[in-house]
Amino acid sequence: MDKKNALRAGTLAAGTTLMMLLMSSPALALTRDDGDDPGTGLSVIETLGLFVFAPIVLFLVIAGLTMVLDRSQEKHRVTTRNVRTKADAKA
């Protein structure tokens, strides 16, 4: 019974993917819409800066602000220093 369900799910996923690919055909992008003014493209440096370096810098700024502005108390932090174990373990 599991094999039949897996086959059915795989067929459904493949069919859905195929229909989505057919419906969003790239050939539709060749015709321009009225008032379409795409402008100039981005250079390689601009593309890398916008889609690679900017997210990394934004992540680092948010992580840094989180670490600097952390006001939690020392006793509430989970570290290996405040783990207490019993000295006498009974088997």
Give descriptors for this structure:
mainly alpha, 2 helices, 91 residues, 0% strand
What is the count of helical runs? 2
Look at the structure and give the mean pLDDT: 82
Major sheet attributes: none
> Could you tell me the strand content as a percent range?
under 5%
State the distance separating the first and last CA atoms.
47 Å
Low-confidence stretches: none
Name the overall outline. Answer: flat
Helix/strand/pairing class, anyone? mainly alpha
Helix share, percent = 40-55%
Helix and strand sequence: HH
Which radius of gyration do the C-alpha atoms yield?
28 Å
Detailed description of the structure:
- The chain has 91 residues and is mainly alpha-helical.
- The protein contains 2 helices and no strands.
- The longest helix has 25 residues, at 44-68.
- The two termini are 47 Å apart.
- The model has no long low-confidence stretch (mean pLDDT 82).
